[in-house]
Amino acid sequence: MANTGDINVGTILRYNGELCVITEYIHRTPGNLRAFYQAKMKNLRNGKVVENRFRAGEEVDVARVEFKEMQFIYPEGDHIVVMDNETFDQVYVPSEMFGDNVKLMKEGMTVKIAFENDQPILAEAPTFVELEITYTEPGLRGDTATNTLKQATVETGAIVNVPLFVNQGEVIKIDTRDWSYAGKVK
Questions:
Q1: Cα 25 vs. chain centroid, distance in angstroms?
Q2: What is the number of other CB atoms lying within 10 angstroms of the CB of residue 137?
Q3: How far apart are the first and last CA of the chain?
Q4: Is 123 left (phi over 0), alpha (psi -120 to 50) or beta?
Q5: pLDDT by residue (tens digit) across 104-153?
Q6: 128-184 shares the fold of 2-60
Q7: Contact between 47 and 21 (Cβ < 8 Å)
Q8: CATH C-level class of 66-124
Q9: Mind listing the pLDDT tens digit for each residue in 45-68?
């Protein structure tokens, strides 16, 4: 067992029999009261967000989770098929674990999957992806003075906002955390 001083944002706990990941974790010391930790946790099974206060030094149940980097092979129905690069085992992961980032993923990308007892419980797309633009309105020369954005369709079919000077056929880097344009790839 661990205590509240051992955990941080991103830690996966077993809270009330459910697996939860900590999304916010703040240590508070109000005036003449005892210190406590304010935690916001997201339930991994149903996605609900729960807030809780933990006393300083309180025992918490940290889940034994194994993270693996796996290769995205192809989508199949409501699942994503990924392969372990060492054992070549294929695992079906529900595509809802990736959220909207599943639209930015293409075959061959490395994704991070968290397992508890050989069951996938958490999935992360790469932080940055490099995709080719398949369609966008042509940019005009000298359109770099303003921060105006236009929409572009990338090779996976997703639509992202890019600066006006980016043209069709170019490969761009996209930040999957907020779908923002991160630069051109040379």
A1: 18
A2: 11
A3: 49
A4: beta
A5: 999 999 999 999 888 898 899 999 999 999 999 886 666 666 778 889 99
A6: no
A7: no
A8: mainly beta
A9: 888 999 999 998 899 999 888 999
3-state class (DSSP) for residue 63: coil
Query: In which order are the strands placed within the sheet that holds 128-136?
Result: 159-163, 149-154, 128-136, 171-175, 180-184
Q: Which CATH architecture has domain 128-184?
A: Beta Barrel (2.40)
Domain ranges across the chain: 2-60, 66-124, 128-184
Tell me how far apart the alpha carbons of residues 83 and 71 are, in angstroms, rounded to a whole number. Answer: 5
3-state class of 92 per DSSP? strand
> What residues contact 13, with CB distance under 8 A and at least 6 apart?
7, 19, 20, 21, 22, 41, 60, 61, 62, 63
Q: What is the mean pLDDT of residues 149-165?
A: 91
pTM for this one? 0.75
Alpha-carbon distance of 93 to 81, in angstroms, equals: 6
Q: What per-residue confidence (pLDDT) applies to 33?
A: 82
Residue 41 is classified by DSSP as E
Q: What is the CATH number of domain 2-60?
A: 2.30.30.30
